[in-house]
Every structure is written in structure tokens, then in C-alpha cells.
């Protein structure tokens, strides 16, 4: 899976959050509403072409309108990104990752994480 730039990730979040086929013209509104980012239509088109070249989306033209469809779902992307971060920044050590996150994890999340670890199958 090819890496995405920060702007490409924001666009993918907009597409995933939209939940269905997104009209091309809606992308600018979503970026502005959700992330307070404003891009010209030509810039949005350039980023969408890059995302299409990377295999993340398919842009379909129908008549005078274009629609964006995600080809990679959010869960798959998050899983790949997390695995990549674990390898690149923590040498594959989940213990090092959790150690780095320890100060940022709220108490209520710590309890559910403990429960998740207890339920894991370590065979």
C-alpha cells in the first residue's frame, strides 16, 4: 500500500465519512467543513488524480458530473498504517508503542485496553 500525504489522507477521511459515492464538487465543502481547509478546484482534482493513481479511489464521470468512490476501506488503511508505524518508529515492538502512548491514554480507555489484551489469543 502506497503512502498518502497529509492532504490525501484528509481527502480519504472525507470520502470515508461521506459513506457513499461522493460528488466531486462536494469534496471542497467537506474539506472546509470538517478540516477548515480550502483548496481550489484544480488542486482538488490534482490530489484526486494522485489518489486514483495510487489505487485508493476511482473517479467516475457521468455526463457533466464526476463521482468519487473509495477502493480501499478505512479499516484496511488504518491497519496498514498502524503496522507501518509500529515497524518504522518502534522497531516492531508493541511494548515500545504502548510505552510511548501511556501518558496520552485516558484512564477509561486503559481499562478497556487491559480487557482487550486479556482476551487476545497469544498462541
Topology of helices and strands:
Elements: H1 6-18, E1 22-23, H2 26-35, H3 41-53, E2 57-62, E3 65-70, H4 74-90, H5 94-101, H6 107-119
Antiparallel strand pairs: 1-3, 2-3
Helix pairs in contact: 1-2
Cα separation of the termini? 28 Å
- Report the helical percentage: 55-70%
Q: What is the CATH architecture annotation of the largest domain?
A: Orthogonal Bundle
DSSP, total strands: 3
Unreliable stretches:
none
InterPro entries: BlaI_family, WH-like_DNA-bd_sf, WH_DNA-bd_sf
Protein name: BlaI/MecI/CopY family transcriptional regulator
Organism: Anaerostipes amylophilus
Pfam family, one: Penicillinase_R
Describe the fold and architecture.
This protein is mainly alpha-helical and 123 residues long. It folds into two domains: 65 residues, Arc Repressor Mutant, subunit A (Orthogonal Bundle), CATH 1.10.10.10; 46 residues, no CATH class. It is 60% helix and 11% strand. The protein has six helices and three strands. A three-stranded antiparallel beta sheet has the order 1-3-2. Strand 2 and strand 3 form a beta hairpin. Helix 1 crosses helix 2. The longest helix has 17 residues. This is BlaI/MecI/CopY family transcriptional regulator. Keywords: DNA-binding, Transcription, Transcription regulation. InterPro entries: BlaI_family, WH-like_DNA-bd_sf, WH_DNA-bd_sf. Belongs to the BlaI transcriptional regulatory family. It comes from Anaerostipes amylophilus.
